[in-house]
Amino acid sequence: MEIHNIPPLYDGKSKILILGSFPSVKSREGQFFYHHPQNRYWKVMAAVLGCWIPETIEEKKHMILSHHVAMWDVIASCEITGSSDSSIKNVVPNDIGRLLGETEIEKIYTNGGTAHKYFQKYIQKNIKREDIVLPSTSPANAAWSLERLIAAWKDKIRLDLDAD
Question: Which helix (H) or strand (E) segment is 25 a member of?
Answer without folding.
Answer: helix 25-30
